[in-house]
Amino acid sequence: KKSIEHYMDLMFLKIQEQMSEQEQAVPDSKYEMLSVIRNKIYSRPYEFRNVYTSAHEVRMSKSSFQHQYKELFGTTFMQDMIRSRMEYAAMLLKTTGMTVAEIAAQCGYKSYAHFATICKQQTGMTPIEYRKSGEVSNASACENE
User: Fold this and answer.
1) What is the C-alpha to C-alpha distance for residues 114 and 132, in angstroms, rounded to an integer?
2) N or C: which terminus of the chain carries fewer CB neighbours within 10 A?
């Protein structure tokens, strides 16, 4: 009977240790999970993403996801999405012969008009004007909000 009690004590102690380790790992795991989302945004800007699907992917509520994202990265999820797509668009506009409509679609925009509006807001130029400008330094303008 005593050995069963000792075994149970040891088992509960091990469970408590594991729970304590998991609680300590939560802040790091949140950062890692959100970093994975951010890496996906920048490595695949053409993929459809929104706050709801991304929050679900890391098993967080929408509001918690948005709050944690901004706290960790200093920018909102949507600002990062726009920035990644505009950086990708800037590269395509400067290095390919794709039409601006094809680039809009390649960057994940369903509407050329929406793409053109965002481009104008971010760079001060329409996509066609941006391409004709020939200034590679304008790509950095896409990074500013």
Assistant:
1) 20
2) N
